[in-house]
Fold BppU N-terminal domain-containing protein.
Amino acid sequence: MTKLAQNASMMSGDSKLISASTSGSDGGAHDLTSATIKYTMEIPSNVGSGSSIKKLSGGSGIAFTDASAGKFEITLDAADTASIVGTFNHEAEAIDSASKVATLFTGIMIIHADVIP
């Protein structure tokens, strides 16, 4: 089941750990044991480098903390947000072993300007 309005904020150029958990349509945990998790923060071409921030489970910024209970963490590094300020859409999805895609959450990330460069 997709969690909507999963909004967050941070300072530009800071690191951020996003802890997430999922649930199935019955409200129980969504087992992610054999799944791949993808995360994207959409950055428009006129902001910073214009490249969206993408993370992937398996060593590229997403780690399972308890896959069978549907829990994982997304790590945003300071370099990911160093040159961007604004409000951006972000989303995570799971692809299971049968290649079925499920959107886990969607929302906005507000990145505030940092006073110290």
